[in-house]
Every structure is written in structure tokens, then in C-alpha cells.
Design a protein that fits this description.
The protein is mainly α. About 80% of the residues lie in helices and about 0% in strands. It starts with a helix and ends in a 9-residue tail after the last helix.
Length: about 140
């Protein structure tokens, strides 16, 4: 058995682990959607669905589910040896948006809250700018993303 044979075996092993990771992400997403449904049902039943804090918590959960989907897409694209740059940027945008929604300035000193808010704004602007650039850049096939 030469080196190339060993490399092929390890590549297949890594690809198998990536597929297992994709199945785990699908399972996590399914559990999360089921839990979200139970939470919405409970909030409607108790009337708490109209409370702002509960709606924000629901949005936070939905964004977390979107992050799981984006990570799944990254794993699948990586397994297929496709570009993952756009997916990673979108995941970053969703993650930062989730942090912005759950950010409570009252929990921090005024200057710390201002710096944190400015950091979030700069990070979002950079990520959106990067997404714009990636979408405007032609792919190898000549088409835009």
C-alpha cells in the first residue's frame, strides 16, 4: 500500500465524518423546530405571546435555527468541494444579528454599551459589504453568485 492509498482512505474517512456531522445538524434542527413549535403553542395558550421579551426570545431561537441551517450548508458545500465563503458570511451576519437582538444596553455601563453597539454596527457593515462583494464577483463558470 503506497502513500496515495493511505491518503484516499483518510479522505474517505473524513468525508464520512462530515456526512455524520451533517446528519447531526439535521437532527439538531429538527429538535429545535419541534421545541420552537412547543414554545409557540405554550405562549399562545398562556397569552404570553404578546409580551415583547417572549417575541424577542422566539426571534433569537429562529435565528439560532437559521445558523444551524447555514452550518449544515457549509458542511455540505465543503463535502462537495464547493465554495463556502458566501455561506460563512451569511452565517456571520445571522449570528451578529442574533447578538444585536439579544443585546440589552441596560446590562452594561453607558460607555461599554456604546462601544459594544458600535462594534456590532461595524461588524455588520463589514459582513454585509463582504457579502455584496462576493455576490458581485463572478464565479469560475462566469456567472454571479
Amino acid at each position: 500500500m503506497d502513500v496515495d492509498d493511505h491518503v484516499r482512505i483518510t479522505e474517505r474517512l473524513i468525508q464520512s465524518v462530515e456526512i455524520v456531522a451533517a446528519y447531526v445538524l439535521v437532527l439538531l434542527f429538527a429538535v429545535g423546530v419541534f421545541d420552537l413549535g412547543l414554545t409557540i403553542f405554550d405562549l399562545v395558550r398562556t397569552g404570553a405571546i404578546t409580551q415583547t421579551s417572549e417575541v424577542i426570545a422566539l426571534i433569537d431561537t429562529v435565528l439560532l435555527l437559521f445558523i444551524i441551517v447555514e452550518i449544515y450548508q457549509t458542511v455540505v458545500a465543503y463535502t462537495r468541494e464547493e465554495s463556502v465563503v458566501r455561506i460563512v458570511i451569511i452565517t456571520g451576519i445571522i449570528a451578529v444579528t442574533r447578538r444585536v437582538i439579544s443585546f440589552h444596553p441596560d446590562d452594561h455601563a453607558a460607555q461599554e454599551a456604546l462601544l459594544t453597539s458600535a462594534g456590532f454596527a461595524i461588524l455588520l457593515a463589514v459582513l454585509v459589504g463582504a457579502l455584496y462583494i462576493v455576490r458581485k464577483t463572478p464565479t469560475e463558470s462566469g456567472s454571479l453568485h
